[in-house]
Write a structure and sequence with these properties.
Chain lengths: 500, 238
């Protein structure tokens, strides 16, 4: 386990982004558990570090650069202007200079230069190129697992260089030579064999949903259903498996159920594709990315649904919105009147617009709410028809369901949002120190609205954010119960029985 | 006359290296597939919108402005001044001189000062800001030194030791029409031209590739329409 560490102090006088002087190697010790053969092999990677791994890693880098215009232009074009240097939450929280996006990129760029550029081949010292060796690999393993692939740097880079792409490539290379990360690889294995990250088999899932139905009926007096594997349902809901029993995720699931209930739209979950998450993106694995997406398309065909709706999950929405059509499309077997896929927020928002939901805002009067934009939703996807809809729609759901809403400071929301600190395959206890320190900028912004507006609820639309805040909030002396699901707030406002 | 020949050969070689080198990179960038849709959002939903986004990035450095006002100030002033300087220099390569080139002459003359101001600011950051000092390599310093030296030697020609500018123009025009003329052998001229030749040669093998690279960044140039239009390329097209 990680050694003891101090949680960063929040400032008394609000200064949302205080850029620290760097302190070298403060996080050099941070490194996630290494995957074993049983984690790597099922998802197509060698069980342990292969012979000649240095050569193979360099070769793989060449393949990736040849196959990705992004990677190639990103590696060639950086001028080291430093615009990104103070934009990463991990740098702000840890002060480790290798957590500056440009420095993180250079861990890989230095190898690219050495083997694939004229300057690096003949004048390595001049341009900071270096040979691939064990110390490089160790550094990669540590610092490419200190990037949550949140893309905040990419917003601020004058060229749009995205460190996420570079960290995905580095993780792909490490997996290819047999040095995988246990957390992500183990989870992907479960997803391939059982259908969800948690390894929750069909029977357990069915039982969980049944119990949930009983619970909700007891609480509300209404028979809100949580259907599983219903052929011919209109909607297939693909949601992160954490929604099935983690807190506060499950309150979101209950909210979706209430929305479908009041809208009178038939829906179903799938036991075969009981997971929205696709950790293949985090490890940059194209084969796995596609394979996981195929499960969902196949489930939709098998069940004969008309629409696919995705639950509250950040990276899953990126994969669904940005990649599904490319990976496993076209979705010509679905009803063309609806976007494929559709976000649950888009769905609920549309219902509200058409008067399909009866909402009682006063039901949420005990809540003073702020909204945390999740990175992958904010900077890698969209909702609705206009750019930036991903910021507007969730906020409109909140203000339609509650009276007290307060946004955090503008430089920390919308496309400027700070990562929760646990995204990108880092939501594991062996990285707890990194996660807590990386949450600092978000916690700082939260403190401001708590102090000024007595905010007591932070709403998120991402399973990882919610789980991460469960750990981060108490570390910064906020109550853990502050974090909740957007559809929890919506669900609490829905007046069941008024539309039946 | 030896000097004229040597510089002629250097100019021809450097031009070939620059054009072939950058041209090759552009072809490589264009041919390398972008398998997935990865625009940094919010992004335009139409091609026209992307053109507008890129226009703002290229003309006013929109993202950089959002990011860091000092880098923006120094960087933008340097690039804008450089554009003026380059435009002004066109007069040495054309007869008659284009109207636009003639019109900017009064501004172009002073642009070199602005250019050096911007570069000096950028260079100062590499020493004064701890983060930027950390990420700077020797080549980052040398690049700034080179461009500043080009600017200073140019100012030397203009303000310290005038050269026979008519003869210099005749030499440059001669290079273009393969009709070799004598090159004025003034110190500042030779230093200025040598440094420019150096810059031309290292352009395609250095971070100056951000110039063509910028136009191929999927994060900025892709249209945000993955649900409406099925995108495939590279491994996703197989």
């Amino acid at each position: 386990m990680a050694a003891k560490f101090d949680t960063p102090k929040l400032f008394e006088n609000i200064e949302i982004i205080d850029t620290p002087k760097y302190e070298a190697d403060t996080m050099a010790h941070s490194s996630p558990f290494v995957a074993k053969a049983k984690h790597n092999e099922p998802i197509g990677f060698p069980g342990e570090l292969v012979d000649n791994w240095e050569e193979k890693a360099v070769f793989r880098l060449g393949e990736l650069v040849d196959g990705s215009r992004a990677l190639r232009t990103f590696l060639d074009s950086c001028v080291k202007c430093g615009a990104c240097a103070d934009k990463c939450h991990y740098f702000l929280g840890t002060k480790d200079p290798k957590n500056m996006p440009v420095a993180r990129q250079d861990l890989l760029r230095s190898i690219y230069r050495r083997y694939y550029t004229f300057a690096g081949k003949y004048f390595p010292k001049l341009v900071g190129a270096r040979d691939m060796d064990k110390s490089v690999m160790d550094e990669w393993y540590s610092y490419f697992h200190q990037c949550s692939q949140c893309r905040r740097c990419s917003v601020f880079c004058p060229y749009g260089i995205d460190t996420a792409e570079i960290s995905m490539a580095a993780r792909d290379i490490m997996d290819t030579v047999g040095k995988g990360q246990k957390y992500s690889n183990e989870i992907l294995g479960k997803l391939h064999t059982i259908g969800n990250n948690l390894g929750l088999p069909e029977k357990a899932l069915a039982n969980t949903l049944e119990e949930l139905e009983e619970e909700v009926e007891e609480d509300t007096g209404f028979a809100v259903k949580f259907p599983l594997d219903v052929k011919g349902a209109d909607v297939l809901l693909i949601t992160p498996s954490a929604d099935f029993f983690a807190e506060p995720h499950i309150d979101g699931l209950i909210g979706y159920g209430k929305v479908f209930h009041q809208a009178g739209i038939s829906w179903t979950l799938s036991s075969y594709a009981s997971e929205a998450a696709n950790f293949s993106m985090f490890i940059g694995s194209s084969d796995n990315l596609k394979k996981v997406a195929e499960r969902i398309r196949d489930a939709a065909r098998e069940l004969g649904v008309k629409r696919i709706i995705v639950g509250e999950c950040g990276h899953a929405w990126r994969v669904a919105y940005s990649f599904w059509n490319t990976l496993v499309g076209p979705f010509d077997f679905l009803d063309p009147r609806y976007p494929a896929p559709q976000h649950i927020v888009e769905f609920t928002h549309d219902l509200i617009q058409r008067g399909g939901l009866n909402l009682d805002k006063e039901a949420n009067d005990h809540r003073r709410i702020t909204f945390h934009d999740s990175c992958n939703v904010a900077r890698a996807s969209r909702m609705g028809n206009i750019p930036g809809g991903q910021f507007i729609l969730p906020r409109e759901l909140i203000t339609a369901s509650a009276n007290n809403f307060f946004d955090m400071s503008p430089e920390t929301i919308h496309e400027n949002t700070f990562c929760c600190g646990g995204g990108g395959g880092l939501l594991t206890d062996d990285l707890l120190e990194l996660r807590i320190k990386g949450a600092m900028p978000r916690m700082q912004a939260l403190k401001q609205v708590v102090d000024e507006h007595q905010v007591n609820t932070m709403v998120a639309i991402c399973a990882i954010c919610k789980a991460q805040f469960n750990k981060a909030l108490p570390a910064y002396q906020f109550p853990m119960s502050m974090i909740t699901s957007l559809h929890h707030v919506v669900g609490d406002a829905i007046q069941l029985g008024t539309k039946d | 006359m030896t000097l004229s020949v040597v510089f002629a050969l250097l100019f021809y070689s450097a031009t070939i290296l620059l054009v072939v080198g950058v041209g090759r990179k552009i072809v490589i960038y264009a041919r390398t597939p972008a398998p997935l849709k990865i625009p940094t959002t919010p992004a335009p939903t139409t091609r026209r919108g992307v053109v507008w986004r890129m226009t703002k990035e290229i003309t006013v450095f929109q993202s950089l402005f959002k990011s860091d006002k000092w880098v923006w100030l120094f960087g933008w002033v340097f690039h804008a001044a450089l554009a003026l300087v380059l435009l002004r220099h066109l007069r040495y390569f054309q007869e008659p001189v284009w109207t636009v080139v003639a019109l900017i002459q009064p501004f172009g003359k002073y642009a070199a000062f602005a250019m050096i101001f911007g570069l000096a600011g950028l260079w100062a950051r590499r020493f004064l800001v701890d983060r930027v000092r950390y990420i700077s390599t020797l080549s980052d310093h040398l690049m700034l030194a080179l461009i500043i030296a080009i600017g200073l030697s140019g100012l030397g020609i203009k303000y310290i030791a005038h050269t026979d500018i008519i003869a210099l123009k005749a030499y440059m025009m001669g290079l273009m029409y393969f009709d070799l003329q004598p090159l004025p052998d003034d110190g500042f001229v030779l230093v200025h031209l040598s440094l420019v030749i150096t810059l031309m040669v290292i352009f395609p093998i250095s971070k100056l590739l951000h110039v063509p690279g910028l136009f191929f960044m999927p994060t900025r140039t892709q249209v945000d329409n993955p649900r409406e239009v099925r995108h495939t390329a590279g491994w996703t097209a197989k």
